[in-house]
Automatic annotation (TrEMBL):
The lineage of its organism: Archaea, Methanobacteriati, Methanobacteriota, Stenosarchaea group, Halobacteria. Residues 224-245 are annotated as: Disordered. This is Tryptophanase. Residues 42-426 form the Aromatic amino acid beta-eliminating lyase/threonine aldolase domain. It comes from Halorientalis brevis. It holds the Pfam family Beta_elim_lyase. GO terms for molecular function: lyase activity. The keyword Lyase applies. InterPro entries: ArAA_b-elim_lyase/Thr_aldolase, Beta-eliminating_lyase, PyrdxlP-dep_Trfase, PyrdxlP-dep_Trfase_major, PyrdxlP-dep_Trfase_small.
Length: 464
């Protein structure tokens, strides 16, 4: 049993109801426009919002700010090698910088990129390089056995159908996102990773793992995955195959990431840092090309848009992220929130994924049509009711798609306590009790790029 103690106290305040009401109206009913000082529990994202450890802060003081040959870079490189098994590392300012460096090198006009589910910035980088982003998620109904599934998996079958249509030459890159962020943070099995590796070999594509939450993913593998006989464990008659339950998180991560040719990483997720990222790859030629592109967009290859102290903090954070007690606490908090919501019969996505609980706002507000953004209505009510900031990931954030009306409650790492989690659950419950009184929203002012509207558009409640 291990837990965290607070070494530095920060204050969070719940403003009075009238002030929340005024702040919400002033923000144009878009919580991205709120000042964080007016937010009591901020579950907008788990990206860069976590709390660093004393060891990370200590490492920051020793950050080496040399332009070239920084000792802090050496420490990051050693951590990536030990934890993830890649020797060649190109540091970047954050995950999308790594995507720019890697996909800008691998993807050309007309190429198709297959992914279990593209995260938004990944999709944008594929498109920015003239490529076509194709999602190949598994049908989660296939793995209905609750709590034990890998709903984040990549469907090799779908991918193969797509390759039959466009030809293998059109697909230079296959990506596996672990955990699958855009699919409710669902995990991906090692077995599936192995199948994707074989598929990439078949079509002669580079196999990239988007490893932003590789440690959380390894936690699910350790908890759930049995080894199949094809792993070479045994060729005897099927008895109960031992799984990963006795393996260390680091060993699982090394095994899973060891199947890839390259990784992209956001240090703001399982690096437990506030900023930073990197790409890492095995092929020396690809490494050279990425370094050249990194110089153009990120900085010299021993700092890549990060201060030396940020490299140092990330190096320590990566090692902490694969400690089992850390992950037990991390995933445990997400499950704690899910459990409270489940007890209150709030419609949430099950099984619960790694970094967040997703509420199904369509089921929460059955009377609000998707054209009036039920997810955004819930987001506004959570702030109004309890100063809780969540994010809409439904028809407001993703126009012209038929995505479900999800609201994500993402937990920052090592930041909130039981009392905050209980407050969030009580807030959701209070809104649920008066759900019949809540109306939908309409957009009154939106930016030119529709795909980015949820960051800045202004809305108003629909008149009764
Ligand atoms: C956050 C994220 C990224 C991009 O990383 P940033 O640090 O936000 O630029 C890429 N892929 C996935 C799966 C992510 O969650």
């Amino acid at each position: 049993m291990r837990s965290y103690v607070t070494k530095m106290a920060g204050v969070t305040t719940l403003p009075p109801r009238e002030e929340r009401e005024a702040a919400l109206a002033e923000a144009g009913y878009n919580v991205f426009n709120l000042d964080s000082e007016n937010v009591f529990v901020d579950l907008l994202t788990d990206s860069g919002t976590g709390t660093m450890s004393d060891a990370q802060w200590a490492a920051m003081l020793e950050g080496d700010e040399a332009y070239a040959g920084s000792d802090s870079f050496d420490r990051l490189q050693a951590a990536v090698q030990d934890v993830m098994g890649f020797e060649q590392v190109v540091p970047t300012h954050q995950g999308r910088g790594a995507e720019n460096v890697l996909y800008g090198t691998l993807v050309s006009e007309g190429d198709h990129v297959l992914n279990n589910t593209h995260f938004d910035t990944t999709r944008a980088h594929v498109a920015a390089n003239g490529g076509v982003a194709v999602d190949c998620p598994v049908d989660s109904a296939e793995s209905a056995d609750e709590g034990n599934s890998f709903d984040g998996n990549f469907s090799v079958e779908r991918a193969r159908e797509h390759v039959d249509d466009v030809g293998a030459d059109a697909v230079p890159v296959v990506v596996l996102t672990i955990t699958n962020n855009s699919n409710a943070g669902q995990p991906v099995s090692v077995e599936n990773t192995r199948a994707v590796r074989e598929f990439a070999d078949e079509i002669d594509a580079t196999f990239v793992i988007d490893a932003c939450r590789f440690a959380e993913n390894a936690y699910f593998v350790r908890e759930r995955e049995g080894r199949s006989p094809s792993d070479g464990a045994s060729d005897e008659a099927p008895s109960r195959e031992p799984g990963y339950e006795d393996a260390s998180i680091q060993a699982i991560a090394r095994e899973q990431l060891g199947l890839a040719d390259a990784v992209v990483m956001s240090g703001k997720k399982d690096g437990i840092a506030n900023i930073g990222g990197f790409a890492a790859m095995r092929d020396p030629d690809l490494f050279e090309h990425c370094k050249q592109r990194a110089i153009l967009y990120e900085g010299f290859p021993t700092y890549g848009g990060m201060a030396g102290r940020d490299l140092a903090a990330l190096a320590v954070g990566l090692r902490e992220a694969v400690e089992l007690p850390y992950l037990e606490h991390r995933i445990g908090q997400v499950r704690e929130l899910a459990g409270l919501l489940r007890d209150a019969e709030i419609p949430i996505v099950e099984p619960v994924g790694g970094h967040a609980v997703y509420v199904d706002a369509g089921a929460f507000f059955p009377a609000i049509p998707s054209t009036e953004f039920p997810g955004q209505a819930l987001v506004c009510e959570l702030y109004r009711e309890g100063g809780v900031r969540a994010v809409e990931l439904g028809s407001f954030a993703f126009p012209d798609t038929d995505r479900p009306e999800y609201v994500r409650l993402a937990l920052p790492r090592r930041t909130y306590h039981r009392e905050h989690i209980e407050h969030v659950a009580e807030t959701v419950e209070a809104v649920f009790e008066r759900r019949d009184e809540v109306s939908g929203y309409e957009i009154v002012d939106e930016p030119p790029i529709e795909e980015l509207r949820h960051f800045s558009a202004r809305l108003e409640p629909v008149a009764e």
